[in-house]
Amino acid sequence: MRISLTGITRAVAFLLITGSAVSLWFALHAEASLTLMCASLTGIASTVVLVFLVSRGVLLPIMKMRKAIRRAAGGDLTVRVPPARLTELRSLTRELNDMLSRLATEKGEVKDVRNIFEVRVRARTRELEELTGNLEQKVQERTEAMEEKMKELERFRRLAVGRELRMVELKKELRQRKERLGEELEESLAAPKP
Q1: pLDDT tens-digit profile of 13-66?
Q2: pLDDT tens, residue by residue, 42-56
Q3: Cα separation, 162 vs 156, whole angstroms
Q4: What percentage of the chain reaches a pLDDT higher than 90?
Q5: 6 inside domain
Q6: Could you tell me if residue 30 is inside a domain?
């Protein structure tokens, strides 16, 4: 069961006004004294004044604080509550306003820190992009150098293979000449001398 100050104020006002009205009704119908009628009218008037003062002095400042809290929850930390007349409520509104001021200050500090952080992140990102670009350039240069070395090695391999093939041919030719020379020498040795 939810109980509100507004509900309690209305219930008390209803009871007081009803009680005073009943007293006034009995006083009028019983032709009672003027004093009883004045007391009943005073009760009704004082109840109306009491309800007005409670509404104005307590409920209105509380409603203003509630409205300010809702606006602050929505992000508006510039909202302030005017000081109330009652000492306790005045103290409460001052503390609420101080809290909102501190929150606004801290929100500004957080925003400043976030901005500094974002600047640092952008700077670091730029550095990393430059480093990445430099690394890509170095990789490209190394790749080109490796490709050039591979071409040189391929040329050397071809030369070496060509030289080896030429050496094989020369050895074969040398063997054939040796064989022919050996045959010619045998023929010349075997042949009669004139």
Answers
A1: 788 778 777 777 777 777 666 777 777 778 778 878 887 887 778 888 888 999
A2: 877 887 888 788 777
A3: 9
A4: 26
A5: yes
A6: yes
Q: What pTM, to 2 d.p., does this model score?
A: 0.51
Q: Which domain holds residue 35?
A: 1-76
Angle at 30 between CA 26 and CA 34, to 5 degrees: 80
At residue 193, the pLDDT reads: 64
CA distance 140 to 193: 78
14: in domain: yes
Evaluate the CA torsion angle 32, 36, 38, 44 in order and state its sign.
Answer: negative
pLDDT tens-digit readout, 66-125: 999 999 999 888 999 998 888 888 888 999 999 999 999 998 999 999 999 999 999 999
- The reported pLDDT for the residue numbered 157 is 86
Domain assignment present for residue 23? The answer is yes
pLDDT for the residue numbered 194: 61
Contact 51, 67 (CB under 8 A): no
Question: In total, how many domains does the chain have?
Answer: 1
